[in-house]
Amino acid sequence: MLPLFFVLAFAAGCAISVQAAVNAQLAAGFGGNVFAAAFYSFATGAVALGIIALGRGGLPTALTVLPSQPAWKLIGGLLGAGAIFSTVLLTPQIGLANLLILVIAGQLIASLTIDNFGLLQSAVKPVTTVKLIGAFCVICGALITLFADRLAAWADHLT
Fold this sequence. Notes:
Number of domains: 2
Number of strands: 0
Helix content: over 70%
Shape: globular
Order of helices and strands: HHHHHHH
C-alpha cells in the first residue's frame, strides 16, 4: 500500500502545478480578478468534497462538533484559501516553476519543524542528519531553479 501512497502524493504535487496554471489563466479570463478565480477554485473544491463527504456519511455529525474545537484547528480552510489565492496571484508574476519551488521549500522547512518538535499536536519525528542533508539539497535545487538564468549567464562569461 505504501508505494501507492507515494504515487498519490506525487500525483497531488502534479495536480497542484496544473491547478496553479489553470487558476492563473482563469484569473486572466476573469479580467485579472485573482480573488474571483481563487474563490471559484476553492468553492468548486468545497462543493465536490461536500458531496463526497455526504456520500460517505457522517458529515452532519462531524459538523456538530465544530463549536467545541479550538480555534487553531479551524484555520485550515483559511490557510488553503490563502494558498490557492497566492498561486493565482503569483504564477503570472514570478512563473510557475519559481512559485512551486518556493512553495516546496516552504513546505519542507515547515514540515521538518512541525515533525521535529511535534507542533500542532503532531507526532514527534526527529529530524535526522540525513533528512537535513536532503533538505539542504532541495534548498540548493530551489536556488538553482530560481537563479538558473543568472547562473547560465555567469557560466557563459567564464568560458
